[in-house]
Amino acid sequence: MTTAATRCTSLWQLRTRALELGHRTLVMGVVNITPDSFSDGGVFLDPEAAVAHALQLLEEGADLLDLGAESTRPGLRAGGVVGSIMAPAVSADEEQARLLPVLEGILQARPNTAVSVDTYKAATARAALQAGAEIINEVSGFAWDAEMASVCAEFKAGVILMHTRGRPEVWRSQPQLAPDELLATVRAGLVASLAAAAAAGIPPQAVVLDPGYGFGKRFGENYVLLARQRELLSLGRPLLAGVSRKSFLGRTLAPLHSGSDGSGSDGGGDDAPIEARETASVAALVAAILHGASIVRVHAVRPAVEAARIADAVLAGGREI
Fold first, then answer.
1. Of residues 126, 165, 167, 246, which has the active-site annotation?
2. Which of 125, 109, 126 lies closest to 117 in space, CA to CA?
3. Is 297 among the residues known to form the active site?
4. Is 246 designated active site?
């Protein structure tokens, strides 16, 4: 692997294949199989609808898919196995009942699809990998279930390790961090996740890192993180950015949609609605690519594919100067 001035170039080792990262941005399409996700909860809860949506995302140019069956939006209770007495908001059995029929349907229709599963539960990860998933997208960075790292190692899965500051129920009440403190916090969390992966026997080439936009970051902190995202490349692994439709974009757009000055507390009622955040999502996506992201996680694939093509051309042009 090499670390260029713009982003890491590397082969990302998955369960049965490797993906080349860094030369062209990969677009990951989101399939939410939940009744309550912040963006499209309930729309694709029916397995047939979810499979059809996933296949449509592939037709629009998605390079890989990310399936999630439990919402982790701010304010929700997300329990874990370690360090908490709270039960998960969604049991592993319910999560698998939602997830596995969709995973199996996608792979039956498109067997070569690289599918990621968004879960922090080891039992769900094991079931998904046995059913053909290639990647585990772990929003807690191996912090919420002590068995998760060993399951990923056992199956030689690709892993996405996200930085999460606390649990969803406390995200809106955490104190604001100064820019340098924020970057140090995110870096330290990702370093700890990398150490947990290494201790479990997961090779570095199986790991992609996610700064965790919106996951325990207050409104303005997300912009600081986006502007300084490239600093995280010094950790030596490619970056994934998930900025699509996030609430910090809705807060910035609030004055254009409600007359608000957009200065309310995180999670307030004045944010621009989800359906009004698509252009902002594309703008943030381009910023993320220009600041080092090799993969972008999105809800609307076609505009993301087109925007990524332009951002990649800008990066290529900069290397030629």
1. 246
2. 125
3. yes
4. yes
Predicted confidence pLDDT, tens digits, the chain (321 residues): 544 458 889 999 999 999 999 999 999 999 999 874 444 445 666 899 999 999 999 999 999 999 999 976 554 454 444 443 344 678 999 999 999 999 999 999 999 999 999 999 999 999 999 999 999 999 999 999 999 999 999 999 999 999 998 777 777 778 899 999 999 999 999 999 999 999 999 999 999 999 999 999 999 999 999 999 999 999 999 999 999 999 999 999 999 986 555 554 454 457 899 999 999 999 999 999 999 999 999 999 999 999 999 999 999 997 765
φ, ψ for residue 279 (rounded to 5)?
A: -65, -40
Q: What six digits make up the tokens of 117?
A: 């599963």
Q: Which residue segments constitute the domains of the chain, with CATH numbers given?
A: 2-242+294-299 (3.20.20.20)
- The number of residues making up the chain comes to 321
Amino acid identity of 321? I
Cα–Cα nearest to 71, from 135, 118, 131, 129? 118
Q: Of 7, 218, 245, 297, which residue is the catalytic one?
A: 297
pTM of the entire predicted model = 0.90
Cα separation, 177 vs 124, in Å, equals 34
Q: Report the alpha-carbon distance of residue 296 to residue 281 in Å, rounded.
A: 11
